[in-house]
Amino acid sequence: MMRPEQVREIALSLPEAEEKETWGEATFRVRDKIFTVLGETGKSAGVKASKEDQALLISSDPDTFSVSEYVGRFGWVTVQLARVDPKVMEELIVDAWRRTAPKRTVKEYDAGGTGGAAPAKAAKPAASKSTAPKSPSKRKTTASGTAATKSTTSSKGAKTATTEKAARSAKASKSATTSKSGKPPRR
């Protein structure tokens, strides 16, 4: 079980993160871009994710994860705080921050230069398991277009690994076996 205060504490421990009330809800931002939203009642939170990660999380535990209203079409996931494991939620918040923060800030965070120590420890093991930093050319050949090549960084591999780990932690034994094959190439 996760409390709203824990969500706030994790989100604000990340570099350059700030809280701003919008639409009657607490939003957590980096450089004025939202990465996490705490629900008005405090029973749920929305986190920024990719469409692939969204599908993986929802299929792993539909009682805990669902498509967010309004922004779900962009990959956002609503998480029921009473049902989610705190470690999984921490990974999802850090992953959402990684998707939103400037690359330089993420790189400094991974190097231990800025931010809180607790979220960095949660994110680093997932990054070390990823093969993306060791073979960026492999990722370039499976992605199409220059935009995909430009966004290929070591943190992208960490994001995918972190989200896959979170999904497995959330009763995703069935989904975990399919997620190990990786993302299919886009055409």
Overview of this structure, please?
Mean pLDDT is 75; it is low at 116-156 and 171-185. A hairpin with a 2-residue loop joins strand 2 (25-30) and strand 3 (33-38). Helix 2 (51-60) runs parallel beside helix 8. Helix content is 48%, strand content 16%. The chain is α+β, with helices and mostly antiparallel strands and 187 residues long. The protein has a six-stranded antiparallel beta sheet with strand order 1-2-3-4-6-5. The N and C termini lie far apart (40 Å).
Which parts are unreliable, with pLDDT below 50 for 5 consecutive residues or more? 116-156, 171-185
Distance between the termini: 40 Å
Q: What share of the residues lie within helices?
A: 40-55%
Class by alpha and beta content: alpha+beta
Please count the beta strands (DSSP E, at least 2 residues each).
6
Write down the overall geometry: globular
Tell me the Rg in angstroms.
16 Å
Major sheet, described briefly? 6 strands, antiparallel
The helix tally amounts to: 9
**Beta-strand residue fraction:** 15-25%
Order of helices and strands: HEEEEHEEHHHHHHH
Q: Output the strand order for the largest sheet.
A: 1-2-3-4-6-5
Overall mean pLDDT score? 75
